[in-house]
Amino acid sequence: MVYNFLWNDKGDKIKRKVMINDCSEWGLKMIDITSFNRSLKATWIKKYLDKENCGSWKRFFDSEFEKYGGEVTLTGNLNIKDSRNIIKVSDPFFKEILEIWSEANYEEKIVSDYHFQSLPLWYNSLIRVGNRPVFFKEWFLKGITKVEHLMDDCGKFLSFTAFQTIHDLTA
């Protein structure tokens, strides 16, 4: 509507990518409506993950994500493709904000040992079992949430037996 008003309904005279530029770059500082819309939708996820926000609207999110483990689905590191394939939500709004969140939140590269050890285990496109990101509810409920929880104090991966013993898991 803004651009139609600006150009009297006669089509854009200047590309919108130019129009959103700063005046010093020959733009008019117009709002990039698409980016603005996407950022508003990503804000829904940030508010949902905020522990201090106790709005009753969060129940809608809870109902969509409960079969996947709740908010852990959003604290992982899923790329858009895995997000679409693994988290099947019925509502188009939820589907769109999940994709936006995945696009904004996904970290493709591991930059250090510390970064690797602090990666989330669950719903992480970089950590796969059977070529799929995973979620093991029993492990999650025991507080096993990061790669470092699979390692000893020296940064070496635990044997499965040692891992089970440390975390009190059954086979």
Question: Which features characterize this protein?
Answer:
171 residues; mainly alpha; 2 strands; elongated
Structure description:
The chain starts with a helix and ends in a 5-residue tail after the last helix. The chain is elongated, with a radius of gyration of 21 Å. The protein contains ten helices and two strands, in the order H-H-H-H-H-H-H-H-E-E-H-H. The protein is mostly helical and 171 residues long. Helices cover 44% and strands 2% of the residues. It has two domains: 1-31, no CATH class; 40-171, no CATH class.
Write the layout of secondary structure elements.
Blueprint: H1 2-6, H2 16-19, H3 33-49, H4 58-65, H5 72-75, H6 80-86, H7 92-105, H8 113-117, E1 128-129, E2 132-133, H9 137-141, H10 160-166
Antiparallel strand pairs: 1-2
Helix pairs in contact: 3-7
Gyration radius, rounded: 21 Å
Q: What class, by secondary structure content? A: mainly alpha
Annotation field: number of helices: 10
Pattern of helices and strands = HHHHHHHHEEHH
Tally of DSSP β-strands: 2
Biggest sheet record: 2 strands, antiparallel
Strands of the biggest beta sheet: in what spatial order? 1-2
Write down the domain tally: 2
> Which shape, going by the Cα principal axes?
elongated
What is the beta-strand fraction? under 5%
In brief, what are we looking at here?
The protein is mainly α. Helices cover 44% and strands 2% of the residues.
